[in-house]
Specification:
32% of the residues are buried. It is built from 4 helices and no strands. The chain has one domain. With 178 residues, the protein is mainly α. The radius of gyration is 26 Å and the shape is rod-shaped. It starts with 37 loop residues before the first helix and ends with a helix. Helices cover 67% and strands 0% of the residues.
Length: 178
Amino acid sequence: MNMSHPSVHPLEAPPLTDAANNAPRVRMKDLQGMPGTTAGLALRLCQFGFAAVALCIMTTAKDFPSVTAFRYLVVAVSLQSLWSLSLAIVDIYALLVRRCLRNSRVVGLFTFGDGITSTLTFAAACASAGITVLIGNDFNNCAENDCTRFETATAMAFMSWFAVSPSFFLNFWSLASG
């Protein structure tokens, strides 16, 4: 009967090398504005604030349901405010427990979500701006409509988009470089 018997073979020590040639790779420090940083949290809170203000102003206007672009703006800024508030909560958690959010799946999710919501918000703000110009300048019908509310809500939607853009680009850059 042939059986295999384990045997112990001593290992040789690894050769000594120059530490400078085999230095461990160091990750780049998180830039302010990336997820899990204080500037990233500030961007998320600005996104949420501008979107929430646009939502509140638009829904208090009496005529907004009659125009499809304004209803689209309400839906887009509602989605933007929910997304930004959710990620602000994640940023607060990451800052409190001092956790880095550089996982490629997490950053990919943030990038995808920011890309979708920023595109929707920008398109809705552009459509609402076009309708607002049509009502105010072309029809001269601001006396019967809430032109000031529409313009303010549209401006807030654009401001929300301006706050989302740095988050999207920083997340995209982090995803591409990591």
